[in-house]
Specification:
heterotrimer; A alpha+beta; B alpha+beta; C alpha+beta; B: alpha+beta; Uridine Diphospho-n-acetylenolpyruvylglucosamine Reductase, domain 2; Enolase-like, domain 1; 4-stranded antiparallel sheet; 12 strands; about 20% strand; C: alpha+beta; Aldehyde Oxidoreductase, domain 4; Aldehyde Oxidoreductase, domain 3; 3 domains; 7-stranded mixed sheet; 5-stranded mixed sheet; 19 helices; about 25% strand; binds flavin-adenine dinucleotide; binds FE2/S2 (inorganic) cluster
């Protein structure tokens, strides 16, 4: 069976490894490289526990082959805190708002949240709930997760424009997608 | 959870991809694009090819052309947009051009799967996999899009209906053919409405509608439904009722009423959450919602998303 | 109490809420599958494709030949080993003699997904290849999946020992008194309902990593367990060992909900194979394996009747239930339905209750406790019935509840089904919830909405028995004054680390930073019952508090010796012992006698040379605590729904939860438990249902088909509270983990039926999918 030598950057560290054609990225990260932040919660690409950032996009690492990431850059939840171990504001707010219980969904939630806030810095609660469609949490009922995302948005908002972004009427066209169906 | 064994080949160009498909023909090769139909199939034992040809690195297949053929650079005219097969849903949603000129497609894409999947899945993969309940088959069928493919026998253009097998024939893509792009004619009056399946996230029922109008009269109407049958289907009775009618809510409502006429509940897909009968029943409501969105866009003129938000 | 938490929790959103958060948020927390052992092998199962079949033959040759495959096992291998290889089952309370669940099928499979063969390989992928390569010959048998159908004369039989498929029939309450109440009633109201089968769906699938130490003849099994000592006992049974030969470690666990308290073949086979291969063996279930193997929850079919006077006074309640227990009795799974009726009185004075429960074997996955475990089933029956009765008598459902509610001065209140309610002010909880929901205004607004949808308001009250069994709690003070607290419970989201540290800090008056909390290791913790049934704070919390108090008492005696006063002359505040005001002088010897001594100094004394005479060295206490009785949580929830009559689409516009769980030690954690419970309860009410086809094929075997709620499916949950301390434990607490799963289903169903009542709809079974509601509307027309 074919194996492949690949090089990728994980959390800003370059790594080389040999993978089978069929090895899923999530298993390469967890079993080969020891990044166990991304979790496996299903085999139907539904739960989002495995969400990582791949070249800047939030993706489900259980639905990407490791070999496809040759030359790519991956960030897992392990890469969120800064070098001094200072938590990322999103992580801080998840804790402050009690947006996690068992924590199994949390690495994925945090990663999806980062992506959401990059494209929509001031989402409404409804937009947050829709953006989290691909992340299942069985513990929190999502309420405190939504609170955490809201607080993270506020924490990340540049201080000067806080007033503006709070008004919500200056929405970036690309994130204000029409919503042709309940989701 | 774990795919079976296969060999993985990365194609560097379209020609390379075709050659790889040819060379590994004995291994029943499958093309890998965004992987969000194929990998779940592999993980769950629904497919077991012995070779995959990854087209993900072929830049020529990616992008939204402003009238220019993505691959050849030839101009496709100002009244359509060419979308490279590898273009992701996220890229489609970021295109102002598509938001303006093909809102039926951006509408459908905006409620497709979830944020992470929209970063990976591609229009070419979506139309080829054409999962029951997938959103883009309905949108492209209503948009009257054309799918361009390349294969051992060269290049051809297939209209969406034939490509998707929505005209009663088998889907037209042949073995070892590659979808290169999708061309979507510009029609501003389009809309999509979806009842999301609570478990799968696909459409329990999804309806895409595109209207061509002339001075307040509907001159052409294409209404397509997904989720109800195994394949996407045009709702001919609704279309017939629309053509020649005025753009008014009561004609829309009356036309939408007829959405279920041509589908036997017994033929419709059925599961624990929605029987065939229920899906057929929902068609009218969702046809009406899709049409209203289209009509709002007629009213708002090109580019407006009208009062889309109110429709929920 | 000093307010040691003040600095930690300063400001609304500053700083972490729980001490366990940081590791979880950064990916550093280790769940079972995260543990890497370079030498570990991987176990996977060949599972039955059929719901009911004889096994003809199993061909493992091809699988065994795959490179990297270390072992392929069937029952024949187990049979010749030293292990009994069957999972424990509490047959004592059953009416039949049936075999227990074998770790690998003997000759017959009784539910789809039952393990038939096990393979172990060098890595996960090869294990999968080997599973694929095993071929099994089946002789399919007729299957039965419904508990009522299974009792039919001509139904297929699962076990010779239970020819009618009845595992047990149990009576609760007083049959005669109830017959009497129904002899000449003014009104009888009945309802027939189904409590839908659910799959707990913790996000982390079950997993185990088993290691065997041949020299010591001892196992270490690291696994997803809510109850490490419980699993040690069960593993010992299955493997034929003494408990002392097994160490169970439960690391970070991604949600439990009952499922991770049960014992399945996975962890047992991992251990068995680890011994056979002398290699560590890891087993991680896939989502679909988890769904197939169960244990599932609920699945009751019930008929219930209420005898009620014209003035709304309830006279009697009569219930008959068929409870589906699946293909095998897993531990107490088959006897559990026998006590489900204990909460049938809900919050009401019901003079006579009788409940007959039939536990029925069917060709479905074993059924066992799932968050709530019998309590949601019971409350659902009563709360639906009361609502139906109100409608039939023409009174407001709230009014009918008020008329029958147990009054504050009636506590402790003994119900006819054996529950002894400890304390409560039920009506206040009800009023609180109505006020929060603005019930009168909702009623005044009527049913029709401006947008053509139908509005419904649903109310349900509940009681919940919490805190059964004993628990161990250890407070160990180290020589430097640092403290390790341990308990036999296990936290998998509930934040025990935070709660216990605060409890002990409050007693010992030392910073929580000086306290570590340890759970989940059967070797280092004396014993334990585990975390389920909303019991941990009551039992584990009380145990660690009692231990902390004992530690403090002993520390005080050390301090008294150092201060040269009597223990009762010693004051203690903020980690420092001193001579109580007004008590100095007396016996003290002179100037070099210390005026104060710190907690850490006392710890040093306890382990130092020259421990004061008449004192034992050491500063550590263990408590085995059992509460003085069950604590009954209660509350009232209100839901407001809007229904599109064309599509049946349901919107939960509002959800209000007012719960009384006694003292709220960690209000944020309590609220989180309410949110999560309500979310799962709403899931049951509107979208979740494990369903089988007639052949015993599980149709909802993945997240593609089993609909757990997403963020956009759930409403904002508005919470309120009343506080009625429990007199039955020193903390005054009551459990809160399951309240939402109990209250939400009847609340939501009551709301939906309220919206449709004018059409003649009396009852609709869960889950209330769009189609279910649409049909209810259509069929009523
Ligand atoms: C959890 C989940 C939810 C989803 N929900 C939705 C939804 O709501 N709506 C929806 O529409 N879809 C949904 N999808 C499907 C998703 O959109 C897939 O991405 C899509 O169906 C396939 O696109 P892909 O690029 O991922 O293709 P792949 O999976 O890579 O390929 C799919 C198939 O198409 C073939 N193929 C791909 N590209 C080409 C090409 N250029 N030429 C020829 N053949 C090609 C492949 O060989 C394969 O057979 C969902 C998927 C998942 C996992
Ligand atoms: S593991 Fe569930 S989506 Fe990836
Ligand atoms: S916190 Fe447990 S799944 Fe989200």
């Amino acid at each position: 069976m074919a194996t492949h030598d690949i090089e990728l950057t994980v959390n800003e560290t370059e790594v080389e490894l040999t993978v089978d054609s069929r090895t899923l990225l999530v298993h390469a990260l967890r079993d080969e490289l020891g990044y166990t932040g991304p979790k496996v919660g299903c085999e139907s690409s539904k739960c989002g526990a495995c969400t990582v950032e791949l070249d800047g996009d939030a993706v489900k690492s259980c639905t990407v082959l490791a070999v496809q990431t040759d030359g790519a850059s991956v960030q897992t939840v392990e890469g969120f805190a800064d070098e001094d171990g200072e938590l990322h504001p999103i992580q801080e707010q998840f804790s402050a708002e009690h947006g996690l219980q068992c924590g199994y969904c949390t690495p994925g939630m945090v990663t999806t949240t980062k992506h959401l806030l990059e494209s929509n810095p001031d989402p409404s609660r409804e937009e947050i709930r829709k953006a989290l469609k691909g992340n299942i949490c069985r513990c929190t009922g999502y309420q405190n997760v939504v609170d955490a995302v809201e607080s993270a948005a506020a924490a990340l908002a540049p201080a000067e424009s806080e007033g503006e972004s709070a008004s919500g009427d200056d929405v970036d066209l690309r994130t204000d997608y029409p919503t042709p169906g309940e989701d | 959870m774990f795919p079976p064994q296969f060999d993985y080949h990365r194609a560097s160009s379209i020609d390379d991809a075709l050659e790889l498909l040819e060379r590994h023909a004995a291994d029943d090769p499958r093309i890998l694009a965004g992987g969000h139909s194929l990998l779940p199939d592999l993980k769950n034992g629904r497919a077991s090819p012995r070779a995959l040809v990854d087209i993900g690195e072929i830049d020529a297949l990616r992008g939204i052309g402003s009238g220019a053929d993505v691959e050849s650079g030839a101009d496709s005219g100002a009244d359509e947009t060419a979308i490279g097969a590898l273009t992701t849903y996220a890229d489609i949603l970021e295109s102002d051009r598509l938001q303006r000129h093909a809102p039926v497609l951006t509408d459908a894409t905006s409620v497709l799967a979830d944020l992470q999947i929209r970063n990976r899945g591609t229009i070419g993969g979506n139309l080829t996999a054409a999962e029951p309940g997938a959103d883009l088959p309905a949108a492209t069928l209503a948009a009257d899009a054309t799918v361009r493919v390349r294969g051992p026998d060269g290049e051809r253009a297939i209209d969406a209906a034939a490509f998707l097998g929505a005209d009663g024939s088998e889907p037209a893509l042949r073995e070892r053919e590659l979808v290169t792009e999708v061309r979507v004619p510009h029609v501003e009056a389009g809309g999509y409405a979806k009842k999301t399946h609570p478990a799968s996230g696909y459409a329990m029922v999804g309806v895409a509608a595109v209207l061509e109008t002339d001075d307040g009269t509907i001159t052409d109407a294409r209404v397509a439904a997904t989720g109800v049958l195994e394949r996407v289907v045009r709702l001919a009775a609704v279309e017939d009722a629309l053509v020649g009618a005025r753009v008014e809510s009561k004609t829309i409502e009356a036309a939408a009423e007829r959405a279920g006429e041509t589908i036997e509940p017994a033929d419709a897909r059925s599961d624990d959450h929605a029987s065939g009968e229920f899906r057929v029943h929902l068609l009218s409501t969702y046809a009406e919602r899709a049409l209203e969105r289209a009509v709002d866009r007629v009213a708002a003129g090109a580019g407006g998303t009208g009062t889309a938000g109110d429709l929920e | 109490m000093t307010d040691r938490r003040a600095d930690e929790d300063a400001g609304e959103t500053a700083g972490p809420t729980r001490r366990e958060d940081e590791a979880l948020l950064t990916g550093r927390a280790e769940y079972t599958d995260d543990l890497s052992d370079p030498n570990a092998t991987h176990l996977a199962f060949v599972r039955s494709e059929y719901g009911h079949a004889e096994i003809g033959g199993i061909d493992t040759t091809a699988a065994a030949g795959i490179e990297g495959v270390l072992g392929v096992y069937t029952w024949d291998d187990i049979a010749v080993s030293e292990s009994p290889g069957v999972l424990p089952t509490s047959t004592g309370s059953l009416d039949c003699e049936v075999p227990a669940h074998p770790v690998l099928a003997r000759d017959r499979v009784r539910y789809q997904g039952q393990p038939i063969a096990a393979v172990v390989a060098e890595d996960r992928y090869r294990a999968r290849d080997a599973v694929d390569a095993v071929s099994v010959e089946y002789d399919p048998l007729e299957a039965v999946v419904d508990s009522v159908a299974a009792t039919a004369e001509d139904a297929p039989t699962l076990f010779d020992g239970a020819p009618d498929n009845v595992a047990a029939t149990t009576d609760q309450g007083d049959r005669e008194a109830t017959e009497e109440a129904f002899a000449d009633p003014e009104n009888v109201v009945d309802v027939e309902l189904e409590n839908n089968r659910l799959i707990s769906s913790a996000l982390e699938p079950r997993a185990a990593l088993a290691e065997y130490d041949a020299a010591e003849d001892r196992f270490t099994v690291t696994m997803t367990s809510q109850s490490p000592h419980g699993h040690r006992r069960k593993l010992a049974h299955t493997l034929g060992l003494s408990e002392r030969q097994i160490r169970v470690i439960s690391p970070s666990v991604g949600g439990g909900f009952g499922h991770k308290g049960h014992h399945h073949p996975g962890e047992a086979m991992a251990a068995w194979c680890a011994r056979d291969l002398e290699r560590p063996v890891k087993w991680t279930a896939t989502r679909s394996a988890n769904y197939l193997e169960g244990a599932h929850g609920r699945d009751h079919r019930t008929t219930a009747e209420l005898a009620i006077d014209d003035d709304g006074t309830i006279r009697g309640l009569r219930v008959e239930t068929h409870a589906n227990v699946g293909g095998y009795g897993l531990d107490g799974g088959a006897s559990m339905p026998g006590w489900y009726g204990g909460l049938l009185s809900s919050q009401y004075r019901i003079p006579a209750i009788h409940c007959e429960t039939h536990a029925i074997f069917t060709n479905t996955a074993p059924v066992h406790s799932y968050r709530g475990a019998g309590r949601p089933e019971a409350i659902y029956v009563t709360e639906r019935l009361v609502d139906v009765a109100a409608r039939e008598l023409g009174v407001d459902p709230v009014e009918l509840r008020r008329r029958n509610v147990i009054e504050p001065d009636q506590f402790p209140y003994e119900t006819p089904v054996g529950a002894s309610y400890d304390s409560g002010d039920y009506e206040r909880g009800l009023e609180e919830a109505l006020e929060l929901a603005d019930y009168d205004d909702l009623r005044a607004r009527g049913r029709e909405r401006e947008d053509g949808r139908l509005r419904g308001v649903g109310v349900a009250c509940y009681t919940e028995s919490t805190g059964g069994g004993f628990e161990s709690g250890v407070v160990r003070v180290h020589r430097d004054g640092g403290v390790t607290v341990s308990a036999g419970t296990h936290s998998h989201g509930q934040g025990h680390g935070t709660t216990y540290a605060h409890l002990v800090a409050d007693v010992l008056e030392i910073p929580t930073d000086d306290i570590d909390v340890m759970e989940g290791d059967s070797d280092s913790i004396p014993t334990g019952t585990g975390t389920f049934g909303s019991r941990s704070t009551i039992t584990g919390g009380s145990a660690v508090v009692e231990s902390a108090e004992a530690v403090l008492a002993k520390a005080r005696r050390f301090a008294a010796a150092r201060l040269e006063v009597e223990p009762d002359e010693v004051a203690y505040a903020n980690g420092e012992f001193s001579v109580r005001d007004g008590d100095e002088g007396g016996s003290r010897s002179g100037d070099d006698t210390a005026d104060t001594v710190s907690f850490a100094d006392v710890a040093g004394m306890a382990y130092g040379w020259g421990v004061p005479e008449d004192m034992d060295p050491g500063l550590e206490e263990t408590t085995f605590y059992e509460p003085d009785g069950t604590a009954y949580t209660f509350g009232t929830h209100v839901a407001v729904v809007a229904i599109d009559p064309e599509t049946g689409e349901l919107e939960l516009e509002r959800y209000v939860a007012v719960d009384d769980c006694g003292e709220r030690l960690e209000p944020t954690i309590v609220e989180g438990q309410v949110h999560g419970g309500v979310a799962q309860g709403i899931g049951q009410a509107v979208s979740e249902r494990a369903s089988y086809d007639g052949d015993g094929t599980l149709l909802t075997n993945s997240l593609d088909s089993y609909a757990v709620p997403r963020a956009s499916h759930l409403p904002e949950i508005e919470t309120g509270q009343t506080v009625t301390p429990s007199p039955r434990n020193p903390l005054g607490v009551k459990g809160i983990g399951e309240a939402g799963t109990i209250a939400a289903p009847p609340t939501v169903v009551n709301a939906v039926v309220d919206a449709l009542a004018h059409l003649g709809v009396r009852h609709v079974d869960m889950p209330l999918t769009d189609e279910t509601i649409w049909r209810a509307i259509r069929d009523s027309r």
